[in-house]
Design a protein that fits this description.
The structure is a single chain. By secondary structure, this protein is α/β, with parallel strands linked by helices. A hairpin with a 2-residue loop joins strand 18 and strand 19 (about 550). The chain folds into 4 domains: about 10-210, P-loop containing nucleotide triphosphate hydrolases (Rossmann fold, 3-Layer(aba) Sandwich); about 220-370, 3-Layer(aba) Sandwich (Rossmann fold); about 375-430, no CATH class; about 480-595, 2-Layer Sandwich (Alpha-Beta Plaits). The relative contact order is 0.10. The chain has 21 helices and 20 strands.
Length: about 600
């Protein structure tokens, strides 16, 4: 097939309005997965795409869907299933970008942790494409709030990741509730047996396309990653910046809103920062880059698109505050440093649920990214004290202190205190904005433990190590101060401990070993969570849904939490929940994945 047209996409059969949108956003030539997949999907044939994250597969399925959409039909015509809410949001944003020239196009991202009422309103108004996580899509199908009568395309994005996260049964349940005559496109980085089974059972003579990623990173750039809890990313970032010897920094986030938010939060912590995103006009963009070059600002927080073409010699560090979903985007990001023969450093902040993206980047680039840990509170204290001593010594040697000596003499005379006591008071005042002694923070001082279910290099962990790890987890939790909370969902609503663990761990990205005791009662439940929860996280958890109900999380006194007690025997029937709704399948669906855990 010829690929010599103006942009390279017209030759694939895409309509002009889509090609113009692609040109506007800087897409010139289709990637291999796009070049091979788009013609197949435009013909409404089933497809099995084997490709790593970052090869451009979102556009590979989004563009054919947009080309075939019927805007006069105001109900879902395409359903995209994604393993995580982050990926669901990213796919929905990509659709919106590609559909820039399509008036009246509507897409609804639906996932656990988002207000169910907002999703219901959006679906009721009418949408053409739905992208969501399996658990929340199932919720809407059970509520009859998601009508798939006019569905003609289903996409399973990162199918092997959905398998790893335990969603494959849910995916099969959803496929069984879609029209028989529909197109299915399955994308996966690997082909484990369960994915082969889905391919055999639900895809009709699919076209198989396999793409090998060939992207390589700049070897002179030192690459590191830090495993962090998402609700503490800004605190982790602050620690990193305090110990890194940087000059200029470009920091990457996923959204325009996040550039402004993070830049403001860094400014509040004393770092000269500015945002750079697609909403900023060219003049302001030029001013910001010039300020970075001249040293008036030290940190630019940018999106991928906004950072294109930046070449500032003083940029020594690139920080991926949000890990990119696209491997090629990672390479472009870190390429902002280490230019023209200079060395550079790239740091990734990775949450536990994003490890698969890290591994994908490593596989794609063929280079390992070294894990490093956050500096502890003790290390920060030692560093700050050392810097304070150096500052005092430098001032004693180089500054004219005569006026201040007179002032201190007056204070000594008035107070009758010793010179040491007055000097200590001055030191206390001097460090009030940035305390010399850093308070211990359990979730930042101790490294996040790897998920015991994660396999490394294809090898299973030794069972004896797993037993040891469980004991370690219990010991770690015992050392973490806990607060008690009440939530407005209980046994009568079908809630189980796994539902609460899944919902809270997913929204807060908190390792499950840091979730304490859970007590389930008929109409409410109680749970212990680490002390010092940020206000914004507490507010977010109030809106998380479990079994179709918002948690409405609220803190209670420790003595108000009932003691754990044995669960009553399970009653007959369907167990008060959603068991038995699997179209005749023998196994009940894993309920911890039902709602908020998606």
């Amino acid at each position: 097939m010829s690929n010599e047209s103006a942009s390279g996409f017209e030759a694939l059969g895409l309509p002009t309005f889509l090609c113009e949108s692609l040109k506007d956003i800087g897409y010139e030539q289709p990637s291999p997965i796009q070049q091979q997949s788009i013609p197949v999907l435009l013909q409404k044939r089933d497809l099995l795409g084997l490709a790593q994250t970052g090869t451009g597969k979102t556009a590979a399925f989004a563009l054919p869907i947009l080309a075939n959409i019927d805007l006069s039909v105001n109900s879902p015509q395409a359903l995209i299933l994604a393993p995580t809410r982050e990926l669901a949001i990213q796919v929905a944003e990509a659709f919106q970008t590609y559909a820039k020239g399509v008036k009246g196009f509507h897409i609804a991202p639906i996932y656990g942790g988002q207000d169910m009422r907002a999703q219901l309103r959006q679906l009721k108004r009418g949408v053409h494409v739905v992208v969501g996580t399996p658990g929340r899509v199932m919720d809407h199908l059970r509520r009859n709030s998601l009508n798939l009568d006019n569905l003609n395309t289903v996409v399973l994005d990162e199918a092997d990741e959905m398998l790893r996260m335990g969603f494959i049964d849910d995916v099969e349940w959803i496929l069984e509730h879609t029209p028989k005559q529909r197109q299915v496109a399955l994308f996966s980085a690997t082909m484990p047996q369960a994915i082969k089974k889905i391919t055999a059972n639900y895809l009709d003579n699919p076209e198989r396309i396999q793409i090998e990623a060939k992207t390589k990173t700049v070897e002179r750039i030192e690459q590191q990653y830090v495993l962090v809890s998402p609700n503490r990313k800004i605190d982790a970032l602050t620690r990193i910046l305090e110990v890194e010897d940087f000059d200029g920094v470009i920091m990457f986030v996923r959204t325009k809103t996040a550039t402004v938010d993070l830049a403001q939060r860094l400014e509040a912590r004393g770092y000269a920062s500015a945002a750079l995103n697609g909403d900023i006009n060219q003049k302001q963009r030029e001013i910001t880059i010039e300020q970075l070059k001249s040293g008036k600002i030290d940190i630019v927080v940018a999106t991928d698109v906004a950072a294109r073409g930046i070449d500032v010699p003083r940029v020594t560090h690139v920080v991926n505050f949000d890990i990119p979903y696209d491997n090629e985007a990672y390479v472009h990001r870190i390429g902002r440093t280490g230019r023209a023969g200079r060395s550079g450093k790239a740091i990734l902040l990775v949450t536990p649920r994003e490890r698969h993206l890290l591994r994908s980047i490593e596989r794609s680039t063929g280079q390992p990214i070294t894990e490093t840990r956050l500096p502890t509170s003790e290390e920060l204290t030692t560093r700050r004290i050392s810097q304070f001593r150096e500052s005092v010594t430098k001032a004693l040697s180089n500054e004219d202190l005569s006026i201040f000596k007179e002032l201190i003499g007056d204070v000594l005379e008035q107070t009758g205190e010793s010179p040491e006591a007055v000097a200590a008071a001055v030191a206390y005042l001097a460090q009030s904005d940035k305390p010399l002694f850093v308070e211990k923070d359990q979730l930042l001082d101790e490294p996040i433990k790897a998920n015991r279910r994660e396999k490394r290099d294809g090898k299973k962990r030794d069972p004896s190590i797993e037993r040891k790890t469980r004991k370690q987890r219990e010991a770690e939790r015992a050392n973490v101060p806990m607060d008690c909370y009440q939530v407005e969902v209980g046994r009568s609503h079908g809630a189980r401990p796994g539902d609460l663990v899944g919902a809270i761990a997913n929204e807060a990205d908190l390792p499950s070993n840091y979730i304490g005791n859970i007590v389930i009662e008929d109409s409410r439940s109680f749970v212990q969570l680490p002390s010092g929860m940020p206000k914004e996280l507490s507010q977010a958890l109030q809106k998380v849904f479990v079994r179709g109900r918002p948690l409405k999380l609220r803190k209670i006194a420790p003595d108000a939490m009932p003691a754990s007690r044995p669960r009553p025997p399970r009653s007959g029937g369907n167990g008060g929940g959603e068991r038995g709704e699997r179209s005749g399948r023998g196994r009940p669906r894993r309920q911890s994945r039902a709602n908020g855990a998606s």
